[in-house]
Amino acid sequence: MLGNERRSGRLKGIAVDIDGTITFSDRRIDCRAIEALRSLDVPVVLATGNILCFARAAAKLIGTAGMVIAENGGAVSLGNEHAEFNSRYLDDCERMFRILSERFELERLDPSHRRTEIALRRNFDMKIAQELVHKSGLDVELVDTGFAMHIKSVHINKGLGLRRIAELVGISAKELAAIGDSPNDIEMLQESGYGIAVGNAHNMVKSAVRHVTAGEYGAGVAEAIEHMRKLGLL
């Protein structure tokens, strides 16, 4: 784990990953996380590699403030009346998709809704695909979230999405905490003022945060919130 725990200054919000953090590995919602998030008196930002309409629906059902980071940081929204998409690197993702398609039979996920990256079903050899990405010379990366494979720009991540959300509401990302489990959460966790990994998190994530919970999935989220309350951060 990184650094000493911050013990002064109250946080103004919390960003939390969805899949594998507030859901179980089979994507069922862990109600322990929902109860903990609803108990907060600061806004909650939902972060996901999924598409914007999914993130907005999740925010509505969970009862959060409506602020979301979607497509691994490529899309951000403050609510149904606002959305920003960083599609400037999508052409490189499409080029990489065509290269991979020459080797594998690929299945795109949500192609009509995904506007900043390409998501694929996890049914091909990741090692070979990573070699092809490296040889391509394109500024893209292939990220396995455990739920899908994402062809995304190296210039887009959840950390930049968190920074943009903070800018839009007039605060610093360091005034937000973040909770996550997957390597695609690392930039968000490090960009925040206090990063926490749930107990089921990837080891790379655990080594990049201030605190790791004993509890997994939703139990870890509830534990993380209680931990920050004890530190006087919430």
Could you characterize what this model shows?
The chain has 234 residues and is of the alpha/beta class. The protein has 2 domains: 13-85 and 156-231, 3-Layer(aba) Sandwich (Rossmann fold); 89-153, Hypothetical Protein Ta0175, Chain: A, domain 2 (Alpha-Beta Complex), CATH 3.90.1070.10. Helices cover 33% and strands 21% of the residues. The chain contains 8 helices and 12 strands. The strands form 2 sheets. The chain has an 8-stranded mixed sheet, with helices on both faces. Strands 6-7-9-8 form a 4-stranded antiparallel sheet. Helix 1 packs parallel to helix 8. The longest helix is centred in the last third of the chain and has 14 residues, at 217-230. The model is unreliable at 3-7 (pLDDT under 50).
Salient structural properties:
single chain, 234 residues, Rossmann fold, Hypothetical Protein Ta0175, Chain: A, domain 2, 8-stranded mixed sheet, 4-stranded antiparallel sheet, 33% helix
SSE arrangement:
Blueprint (H helix, E strand, L loop, with lengths): L12 E5 L13 H8 L5 E4 L4 H11 L4 E4 L4 E5 L2 E4 L4 H12 L6 E2 L8 E3 L5 H11 L3 E5 L4 E5 L4 H12 L6 E5 L5 H6 L2 E4 L5 H4 L4 E2 L4 H14 L4
Parallel strand pairs: 1-2, 1-10, 2-3, 10-11, 11-12
Antiparallel strand pairs: 3-4, 4-5, 6-7, 7-9, 8-9
